[in-house]
Amino acid sequence: MMSDSELPLFTEPAGGVPAVMDSARGLQRAAEALAAGTGPVAVDAERASGIRYGQRAFLVQLKREGAGIWLLDPEALGSLDLIQEALGEAEWILHAATQDLPGLAELGLKPAALFDTELAARMAGLPRVGLGAVVEQLLEVRLAKEHSTADWSKRPLPKDWLRYAALDVELLIPLRQKLAGLLEEQGKSEWAAQEFAHLCTFTPTVVPRAERWRKTSGVSRLKSPRKLAVLRELWEARESLAEKRDLAPGHLLPDSALVAAAEAGPRTVPQLLAVPGFHGRAAKREAPRWLRAVQEGTRTKDLPGKPSSTGTPPPPRTWKDRNPEAFRQFRTARNRLARRAEQLKLMPETLLAPAVLKQLCWTPPSVLDPEHIEQALVELGARPWQVEQTSAIITVAMLDPDPLEDL
């Protein structure tokens, strides 16, 4: 078999690089063509993560047999309800669906059924699951990767970028066929179907805006409520300006600068601009805004309390002292599930999400028997195939965990 570097480079879609549809007439043409096509629909979206505010899609790519590839500009078109109607009950093929589904949903696009080629590759036990790697392993061609982090909000989009975007959907249909065959050979088709059905209901976890400042990188360095209040005001000032200007917050000020300013408590603009991280254009131009935020945090009587309880367990590394029995149960179950995953040619996190096992061991059912463990797994979101493969292992591990010295 050829090495990755020897594989032919796939450089052009079979039908050429299509133009971007950015008008009502173009959208109508795309909808009519896709509705007349047959079979599943390859779907992808390009964002401007780290450049623009939020995670919205700036380009949507679709391909269907008999319809060809269509590139749509959501910024110009707005709602894509016409496309949703055209696709009807057709299965979508995506790679790493959870990355694109939220942005597509904002445009009115939601799948009735889907096939995630990344998840399928994980379930088939492939060693690498990025799109390029899976294409190389199964289709024996290479895809160019040079524009994956480009600013897709740019207009007009360069021809090379459009070629890259079109190639992202060009091979998804044959890739799906290869992966479906692998899953069938391994007896995992039903497992994958359950996972894909679950993905259709995916919605990202949304942290309330009033609490999102607590996710600032480095926040743990700030020990006093007063410094946390300063950080909160700085974060809110940055977030409001970022939203207004449609820029990623980190383009205005990095998290490290917010934390450093909250730590230093500058009283004047020169002191503020001496804080590490306050050296870019937005730092200097908006210095009065940032200083006002520091002052508001310094004066406010509304000091942050402890974070709202999310009901999630503490990190398992702390369990040994806080709850030794739960620690033994968790480590025993995790080790045994890892062995089972290896037998099934799965990654442990595919066999069962780590968060599910942690929650189950930290807040176990009142009765430790197969029936109650199965019920708890279902309530925590495990799919039927996962319950079938893991419940007995977890039950035995919780009833008779290994001694601490063996963990």
UniProtKB/TrEMBL annotation:
InterPro entries from the UniProt entry: 3'-5'_exonuclease_dom, Exo_C, HRDC-like_sf, HRDC_dom, HRDC_dom_sf, RNase_D-like, RNaseH-like_sf, RNaseH_sf
GO molecular function, one term: nucleotide binding
Positions of region (Disordered): 295-322
SUPFAM superfamilies: HRDC-like, Ribonuclease H-like
GO biological process: nucleobase-containing compound metabolic process
Record-annotated HRDC domain positions: 224-304
CDD domains on file: RNaseD_exo
Matching PANTHER family: RIBONUCLEASE D
Name of protein: Ribonuclease D
